[in-house]
Design a protein that fits this description.
642 residues; alpha+beta; seven-stranded antiparallel sheet; five-stranded antiparallel sheet; globular
């Protein structure tokens, strides 16, 4: 994929700060200050309406309930002035897609009233399931802006349901890739183009509704922009968009100047590439110098022969997905915030794969693992800053845990969906407090898990339980958030095809910080031939795999399997990483965790050195003091022997 250019044209309306040494810490708006505030909030509202339109129109719970999409408003060159609070990795993908569209057609070849669809990862899409629609905005015949959106579509073709093929050795064995199909020409839907795209899908009705949701969102945004152009004038509105970019850049640079210069190293491990159970390592060196930040990923392992790779837009998206929550919690999110950030990646690595590498699950593998490493490096950097260490967090939600489920329902109709447990993961501990339980991922600003009743109404699936997982939060002075396990079984159908994708089944991907322990890893369990329906008929709902008869199977991180009638699948996602030494945690906090079911009695003793009465849960203070002293002494001996 060609990297998107980030320069802007040289007229007054689109000038950017060109000499950071002179103006990097000063915000000089082109527009009058009050006008700037009024219009930036109005544009922000238009961007928000884009997202609500997709939620309201889309027929897929992946978008309407899982929030697996994003929307944006960009300037004429593709710099995102406003982006929705959904999937953060799309902040690097959408500018790349617009930039490559401009290079393919040329500015004069972008016609008014057209919309373009692409799902090609080498053009900027995260993977083939992410269909992106970009909509050029013209005013009096001149290209002045873009609106854009991307949604994860349930199925876009390929050899396996859900379009993720763990057996693929190159991208030609994955779903078809499309480069800038004109789905709208002159304001009218092109039915032959849409039908060509839909004909490859196993779920064309669902995909069709998603595409129409994107088109509706584009039309809404364009209409609202036209209203602003008429009321305030085109130059004023475009100046405000450029001011928004400059404003975020200046605020990021000011914050970076308040953090000590230095270098920090971090890494993350990605297990199983879909073909074999081997480990790939993402390595990053984060350098902060004055008002710039550099992520150097060039030491990362070479690309995989399996489907876990991503293209260059992915490594940028992972870096930006770390910068935004850690550094920009009080700064507007747009492309201006990335101007002080440099991303260095080596072509041929798992997150900058050479064509035609398989990349269909890169978004939840190489990119996710890259973000883990980037966030750990950011946490280390912020822990060194006296002023900004309150923004430090240990690693969140170490890996996705999702499974494509396809089959025939009780009415003889084909169905397919993506069941997501990722939003049930734990957040990393903060510098001053515990991580949030069941918080979702930093890569999804508005995390949401599919509603149980909705899924059961739409698909032949019965949920047996969703419950918090004891001891899944990483131990520390402040512990990581706990995750929740989910159990499902087929309902009124003989068999379903399932494709599990996760990472961290033999280790944890949610690292702790400054002595905090990692959170619990990701586990997937299949119990076959159970007595679940007999138990349910007697009114007994199982609370764990141990409550059921049958054969227990611990599944590898990537696995294709049939989920048959009477089988039960249990998914356990990551807990959040902890912060600081667990032996410094207030014993009263540990007691409350045990009382609330977040920590077990054994975990309180082994991880926190806190001894509780098994019946009353009263803290046994003398035993606790002695145990903590013993653990510290044991650590010292082990360190000496090492």
């Amino acid at each position: 994929m060609t990297k998107p250019e980030r320069q802007t044209v040289g007229n007054k309306m689109s000038e950017r700060i060109s000499n950071p040494e002179e103006t990097k810490l000063q915000f000089r708006p082109r527009s009058e200050r009050v006008t700037f505030e009024v219009l930036r909030h109005r544009l922000w509202q238009i961007n928000d309406e884009q997202g609500h339109t997709i939620v309201n129109v889309s027929g897929s719970p992946v978008a309407s309930e899982g929030n697996d999409f994003n929307v944006a408003i960009a300037d004429a060159d593709g710099a995102l002035a406003f982006v929705g609070p959904y999937i953060t990795m799309h902040m690097s993908c959408l500018p790349a897609i617009i930039g490559n569209c401009l290079r393919l057609f040329g500015r004069e070849g972008i016609d008014e009233g057209d919309m373009y669809l692409t799902n090609d990862p080498w053009m900027g899409a995260v993977h083939q399931n992410d269909a992106c629609i970009v909509n050029p905005v013209h005013w009096h015949g001149k290209l002045v802006a873009w609106t854009a959106s991307t949604i994860h579509l349930v199925d876009v073709g390929g050899s396996l349901p859900g379009s993720w093929n763990p057996h693929a050795t190159d991208t030609f064995q994955e779903a078809p890739r499309y480069r800038y199909l004109r789905v709208i020409r002159g304001g009218k839907v092109q039915p032959e183009v849409v039908e060509t795209f839909l004909t490859n899908s196993r779920m064309p009705q669902s995909v069709d509704l998603d595409l129409r949701a994107q088109i509706a969102a584009a039309n809404v945004a364009k209409d609202r922009l036209f209203d602003l152009f008429k009321r305030y004038g085109i130059e004023t509105v475009l100046n405000v968009m450029q001011d928004c970019l400059d404003y975020s850049e200046v605020l990021v640079r000011r914050k970076l100047m308040e953090i000590p210069d230095g270098q920090w190293y971090a890494e993350d491990y990605l297990d199983h590439d879909g073909r074999e159970d081997r480990v790939y390592t993402v390595r990053v060196t984060l350098t902060k110098k004055e008002s710039e930040l550099t992520f150097d990923f060039r030491a990362t392992d070479d690309q995989s022969p399996g489907f876990i790779n991503s293209t260059y837009a992915g490594v940028e998206g992972a870096a930006f997905g770390a910068v935004l929550p850690y550094l920009c919690n009080d700064i507007p999110w747009n492309s201006g915030a990335f101007r002080p950030v440099v991303v260095q990646a080596r072509e041929g690595t798992i997150h900058h794969a050479r064509f035609p590498a398989p990349v269909s699950s890169g978004g939840v593998n190489a990119i996710w693992s890259t973000r883990n490493a980037a966030t750990l490096a950011m946490a280390k950097m912020l822990s060194c800053s006296e002023k900004h260490r309150q923004n430090m967090m240990a690693v969140w939600a170490g890996a996705t845990l999702i499974y494509n489920v396809f089959g025939v329902n009780q009415h003889g109709q084909r169905f397919g969906t993506v069941l997501q447990n990722s939003a049930l993961q734990g957040a990393g501990a903060r510098y001053f407090a515990d991580g949030y339980d069941n918080s979702g991922s930093l890569g999804m600003v508005r995390p949401s898990s599919t509603n149980v009743e909705s899924a059961e109404a739409l698909y032949p699936i019965l949920y047996l339980f969703r419950k918090r997982v004891m001891d899944s939060g990483g131990a520390g002075k402040f512990r990581g958030g706990v995750s929740s396990a989910t159990a499902v079984t087929p309902y009124d159908t003989e068999s379903l095809e399932a494709n599990l994708v996760t990472s961290g089944t033999d280790h944890s991907c949610t690292s702790g910080v400054d002595g905090g322990y990692p959170g619990g890893g990701s586990n997937a369990v299949l119990k076959t031939g159970t007595d679940v329906w007999e138990r349910l008929r007697r009114g007994h709902f199982p609370g764990s795999a141990e409550d059921l008869s049958g054969e227990l199977h611990y599944l590898p991180a990537k696995h294709l399997f049939d989920l048959r009638y009477g089988d039960v699948f249990i998914g356990v996602p990551h807990g959040g990483g902890g912060f600081a030494d667990p032996l410094t945690r207030d014993p009263e906090r540990v007691r409350l965790d045990v009382r609330d079911g977040s920590v077990s009695l054994r975990g309180a003793r082994d991880m926190y050195g806190v001894v509780l009465d098994h019946e009353t849960l009263a803290i046994l203070w003398e035993e606790t003091r002695c145990l903590r002293d013993e653990i510290r002494e044991r650590r010292t001996v082990n360190l000496f022997l090492r």
